[in-house]
Design brief:
It is a single chain. A hairpin with a 7-residue loop joins strand 2 (39-40) and strand 3. The strands form 4 sheets. Strands 9, 11, 12, 14, 19, 20, 21, 22 and 24 form a 9-stranded antiparallel beta sheet that branches. The chain folds into 2 domains: 4-115, no CATH class; 121-356, Jelly Rolls (Sandwich). By secondary structure, the protein is mainly beta. The protein is built from 2 helices and 24 strands. Helix content is 4%, strand content 35%.
Amino acid sequence: MSFSSENNHGGTSGAFWQTIVGRGVSAVFSGHWHRYQPSRLGGGGDSWENIIGTGGGYTGYLPIRPYQQLWGFGVGEVDGDLLVMSFYADRDGDGAYDDLMDRYVVAWPTAAGESTEPHGLIARYSFEGGLAADDAPEPLGRGIDADLFGGATVAGGGISGDALWLSGNLDYAEAGALDDYVLALNGDLTLSLWVRLDGLGGGTWANTLIAYGTNDYYTEDEETNYSYWLNLQEASGGTYVHFYWEHSSGNNISVYSTLPMNLSLGTWHHIVATRDAETMEARFYLNGEPLGDPAAFATLPTSGGRGMLYLGSDTADLVGFGYEIAGALDEVCIFDEVLGAESVAELFNLDDCVNHSSSAPASVVPALKHDVFGSVGLTLLVVGAGLLALRRRTGERL
């Protein structure tokens, strides 16, 4: 499904996927020629596109992601309302595909008619100990650590201990892993981070703080969509926070703070952006206080499961276009829920992001029993998609 331009299903807005989400279907099962790339696509529901098999993929053009381009298969385990997907490959090279590579919950049990799925802190980059590590607690946190590129460094001088320092010249941090799809959040969202800028670039896409997406595919497609992207935009009236994402085959949604920031260079500022999937509003906060009024938007993002997380820049293919920041980031926290004004104020006062998850992580995730040859029965619908042409995309947003 996420290969929306390469099949006849019409993407998430087409009749096939809209029938799936309209009927409340939890899971669709697909084979993928190329990558292990499950995705909660959005488009009006919580349905998952699950990968039941991968073929390693074509590796004749960059980028090659060895952690995703695997031969392997998926197993679904059902216990009442609970559906858990696991993915196996031959990690140790012994010829047996018995190495557990990934596991996630597709469908959760309900209590009093409500899903028991936990929500809260999905990722946190506090940059302590000289590392750009994701230290959000399990099981919501997956440990999707970031690598540093160019002249990016982790050093002291942050708002709390160490921070990520960037020159604004071809340097950034990139977080990618087999299970980085958990960061492709297309519904409720809170981005909280501390920012210290040494200067401001001009243009719509300059001063990128954080982004989840990719531009490494050869055409616009749903799998390459931005799930979120946040920057500071200079305009005639001042500096505004710009919240951006994509839906369908690269259609743009931009939301701006209704007031400009009172931004001082060389000073730490706490910036928060929230996206509410129920009210269809974005809210912005600066240093613990609301920044203007809620801003309405028309459409939530879809797909984006191929993406990676970028800190301090747009995606790797667009590094060098003037989108990077010169300065530092610290205490970057990503939630799959909307934090309220009270929580935002407490985060500004350096309270730990861990204290602001609405539900405690469900113990069912790490306690799941693995039994490849168990008696669980599943009916799998295999959806195949082929690729007809190869061409590099231009790197432009369409």
